[in-house]
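Example complex used in Figure S2.
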Amino acid sequence: MAAIIRPEEIRSDSGKLGGNGHGETSAVARSISLAKSPNGGTSRAHMIKPTYVRDPHPIDFPWQIEWNPETCIRCGSCVATCTFGAIQPRLQRQGQTLSAGNFPKPVDASQVIMAIKQVSDPKHYCRGCTMCEKVCPTNSIHPVQNEHNRFPLVARQGGSPIKRGGRGHMPIRVLDYVKVGRISQMTDPSLDAARHTFDLLTPLGRGLPPEELALVNENGRLVNGSWMLPMRWIYPILIGDMSVGALSWRMWEALAIAVAYLNEECGLPVRMSSGEGGMPVRLLTSEHLKYFIVQIASGHFGWNRIIKAMPRMVTDPAAILIKIGQGAKPGDGGLLPAEKVAPHIQAIRGVPKADLLSPPNHQGLYSIEESVQKMFLSMNAAFKFRVPVAIKVAASSTSVSVFNNLIRDPYHIVGGYFLDGIQGGTGAAHEVSMDHTGHPILSKLRDCYLAAVEQGKQGQIPLFVGGGFGDTSDLAADAFKAICLGANGVFSAKIFLQLAGCVGNEKGRCNACNTGFCPVGICTQDPRLVARLDVDAVAQNIVDYFLAMDVELKKLMAPIGNSTLPVGRSDALVSLDKGIADRLQIAYAC
Amino acid sequence: MCRMAAIKSESPFAPVLMLRMLLAMQEGHDNSGFAMVMQDLGGAFEGFKHFPLLSMACTSVGLERAEQILENQGFSPKFDYQPDVDAKPGLDFRKMPHYIFRNYRYPEALNSLSDSPTPEQKKLLVETRLALRAALSPDRQGYVYSFWPDVLTLKEIGEPRDIGTYFQLWNENHWLQARVISAQCRQNTNYQIVRYAAHPFFLEGYTLMGNGENTFYQKNKEFQQWLHPAYIGFESDTQCFLYTLHYVVEQLKWPLPYYKHVITPLTFEEMRQRQDAPVLERIRQSCQNLEINGPNTVVFVLPDGRVGICADAKKLRPLVIGKHAEHRMVVAASEVCGVNAVIPDRNDEDDVYPGEREMVIIDNSLEVQRWPQ
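Predicted assembly (963 residues):
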C-alpha cells in the first residue's frame, strides 16, 4: 500500500535522522524536543512553536511524493535520477510487535529501514517531473499534485521573485471554441486529401501590390524590370525561436537535423529560427544555413560570430528576425541564468559566465520609424538586400499601430510580422510576467489582418503568429484556424520540446527550464543530463510529427475545397461562443 | 448549378439559339432566370454601334431619375428600342414596368466616335452607370446592367421559357441580334436572389460568366473592393472573376495569359521547372487574394470580341466547345447537349474540352486556340 509521508509518521518513527538532508535540524526534530507543554499536558496545540508552523514542509509544495515501502526494492534509481534533489534516502526506525515462545506474548521491537523521503527545502521542491516514476522498476514512487499547496508563499522567502520556464496558463482555450464549419458538399465538392495536389507554401518576405511589381511586357511575356524584394516560399509552420543556451546543444542539434531532413528528404521547406544565441559556425558556413532564420535580439548574443562568419557563408539564411519582444514575458528581455552559461555557450555567444540578460528594448531605437530606417536597413544591407528581414513582437493592445506603421513604410523593407501571444513559452521568466502580462493572440492576429484588409494591403507583410499553438498537441488544427483568420503561418516551439520528451505543461508540471536541471536534457548544459537526450530519436520524432501534421493539414483543407492555403478565409470558420465570434468577425454557430 | 452557353458567330444571330441551348441543359439548372449579354450587335442596333447603349430595367420613378442624371451628365438620346412584348397571362417571371435599351450621344465635349471608347469616354460611362445604379438601388426603382457601346444586357428572374415568350425571343428573326452572346439560366445563387446577382456580368467592355463556386470569394472580395470604383456589389461570387479579369488586363495591362496565372497559379513544383519562375512566384505572392481555387469554369468576352474560356486548377467544372465549319460559328456550353442543340451535325470528335492548365481563346476569325498555361 502506498503511503503519503506525513509529519506524524516522521515524528513517531524518525530517529536521529530526522533532518531534512541539508544539515539542518528539521522543524519536526525541534518539535520533539518541545513535546511537553509548560503545564505538563500533551495537547499538540500547546506543543507547536511558531517556527514549526512557519518552516517549509513538503505539504506546502505543489507536488508530493507518494512512495510505497512495501514494494520498493531500495535500488536508489529514483534518487539518482532526480535532478532537483527533491528526494533522499533516509534511515528510519520502524516499530514492530512480535510474538514468541509457547505462550505468545506481544513484544515491542524495532528495526531500521531505508526510506525515500521528500526534501522540505524549497530550493529542492519536487517539480512533478515524474522521472522517479519513469525509472522505478517496481512502480513504487510517483509525484501527486497537491492542490492545497502554499508554494507561492513559501517560494518568495529570501525576497526573490519566482522564476520558471514553460508557458502561461489561460482560463479558456479560444481555439477550442473555433471549428471549421464551412464544409464543401454539392456545389463545390470536397477534395480528396490523399489524391489531390496541395500547395501548402506561404511567402516569407515583403510582397508588393501587383501594380508595383517591376514587370515589363516583352513580346507578351512579363520579365523582371528591376531588382526584386527578397522572398521565400516556406512551409507555413515554423520552428519558433529557441536559442542554443536556453536549449542544450544536443536538443538544438536535433531540431536542426530534423529541419534539414524535412527539407532534403521529405520536400517540406520547414524553417527554424535560431533564437537569440548565435549559431554554430560550421552551420553558418554550410549549405544548410538556408533553412534557418537568424535571430537578432537586444542582447545581440552570438552576432560577433555570425558577422565574422559572413565572408565564409556559402548561402544566405532564410531570413533575419529582429526580436523586439516575446509573448511569454512581454516587456522583458531574454534571461539565461548563469547556471546554463557553460563554456560552449560562452564561446558561441562571446560572453563570460554570468546571468545573460537581454535588455527589454533595443538600445538606440526610440521609434518605429527609426527602427525601420536603422535596424531594418542595417540588416537588409548586411546581406545586400537578398534576405527578408522580419520583426517579432509581443501581441499587445498596440500591435495594430505597430503593424500599420510597418505596412505603410514606403521602403517596403519589412518582410514579416511575427506576433507572439500570451501563451508563448520561454526558458526563463518571472512567473508574474508569464502569468499576468501579455495579450491573447487570436484577436490581435485578426485585428492586424483586418487592418491590412481595410487598406487593401493584406499579404504585403506576411503575418506569422505564435503563442500556445499546439498546446493540446494538435498543431495542424491550431495553425489551420489561425491561417483562416489571416495568418500566413504559425511558429511553434514548445511542442517540439515535448516531442523530445519534455514533460512540462500548463498545469504546473516541471517547467524548470530556468534551473539548468532539466530532467530530460533539453534545457540544460550539464553534460550528464544532456546525455539523456537521444539526438537521432528526437529528430525522428519531430520529422514524424511534421509528416503527420502535413497530412492533417490536408485533411482540413480538403473539406473546405481548397488546395492552397486559405489565408484570411474566415468564412470557413464558426465559433461556438458568441463573444468570440463577434470579436473575430466569424459566424456564430450553436 | 449554373449552365452556361456562349456563341461567337461571323454573322449576327437571334437569342433563340441561347434559349435552345439552355433549355437543352435544363436538367442541370433550376430554370430560375435568364440572363444574357449581347455584343457586336446586329439587327436593330447595327447602325448605332458607336453610341453608348443603356440596358436597364426600372419603374417609372426610376426612369425619370435616370433620365435626369443622364441629361445632367450631358448625354442625349439617339435611338430608343422598345421591345415588342407578348404579355399573355400566366407567364412566370418578375416583370419590371420598363425595359430600356437606348443609345445615347456622348456629351459634346467627348463626342468623338471611334471603334472603341476613348479613356475619357470609358471613365464617363463607368461613372454614369455607377451613378445611375446608386440612384436607383436604395428603393429598388431599377437595375442598370450596362452602359456601353455595342453591348446589350437582359436579365430577368423567372422561368426562361416565359421570359423568352414575353420578349418574343423565340422569334428566329428577332430584331435583337448579335455576333457574340453569352447567357445562363440560373438566378438562384448561393446568396440573395437579386437581379444584380445574375451573370454574365459586364464592365468596361469585359463580359464574364462562371460556373461553380468561388471558395475564395471572401478573399477576392476583400482585396478587390479597393482596386477600382466599379468593383462593387459582390452579389454573386462570380463577379470576382470578372473584376480580376478587368484588373489584370485593363488595369495592370498584363498580357491575357497571365489571367490564368493569377486565378489558378501553377503548383510550385511546376512553376520551378520554368525559366520564368521568379516572375510567376512574384505574381503568385502579389495576387494571392485573386486566386480562385474553387470548382469553376469561366467564359469571358474581351473588348475586342475574342471569347476566352478557362477552368480551375482541379477542373471540377466541365465545358465543351464545338464548331461547325459551314455555320461559321463556335458554340460553348456547359454540356454537350447544349452544343448539340445548335450544331448537332458537327464532327464532335473536334470538340474541345478545356483542361485545367490551359486557356482556350476563340479569336475573331473563329479559330479555337489552346494556350497552355
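Chain B is about 25% helix and 30% strand. Chain B has a mean pLDDT of 93.
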